[in-house]
Amino acid sequence: MTKRTTRSETKQKLVREINFWKWICIALLLVIIGFFAWIYLSIFVLSPTEEPTPSLKSNHKHVEFTTSTSKADLNKLIETYIDDFSKEFSNDEDIGYDVYVSNNVIFKAETKIFDEPIEMKLIFSPTVKKNGDVVLTLKDLSVGALPLPVNSVMSFVNKQYKFPDWVTVIPKQKKIYLSLEKLKLEGDTKVRVDTLDLKKDDISFTLLVPVN
Q1: Per-residue pLDDT for the chain (212 aa), expressed as one digit of tens each?
Q2: For 49, which DSSP code?
Q3: How far apart are CA 178 and CA 70, in angstroms?
Q4: What residues form the membrane-spanning segments (predicted)?
């Protein structure tokens, strides 16, 4: 009787083990089938049929490039521009004045009063407007040893010398306004000043290059 019971238990145990491994194999087979099914769906069903397009597309008419420079390079740029402007409007003659930057913006010219040559020097402090234009406010001036009124000197400069159309002299306010939007650069590129801290030599601007 004991032997029969033992054999029966052994048989049942064997059946349970067979069933366990059978379910393990079935589960493993389902995992494999599911894996290959997922690969198939990913490649042939769920993959996009059209080429992806950029999610961000600018509608602006200009592309912006921000850059920085130094006072030394800015002076070279100013000198080159004045030379080109002088050739264009003065038949290759000297336009009669120089502009350069140090800790301020300096305007220098030599003029004649009562047939005597006199050096004129105007010192301006620059301020950047929100739209990128620049306002030059007069800080100091000297016209030889003559004690001339500021408004008179500014009016004289405005009438005596030729400036680009983007430069506006305002004698009563003792200012010069630089409308850089009107500044003509190669390829219709525009310029906007971002920072103009001459004392710290921190000069940066943005070039706006037109695009189709």
Answers
A1: 444 556 666 666 666 666 667 777 777 777 788 777 776 666 655 555 555 555 555 566 778 889 999 999 999 999 998 888 888 766 656 788 999 999 999 999 988 776 778 899 999 999 999 999 999 999 999 887 777 788 888 998 999 899 999 999 999 999 999 999 888 787 788 899 999 999 999 999 998 888 86
A2: S
A3: 19
A4: 20-41
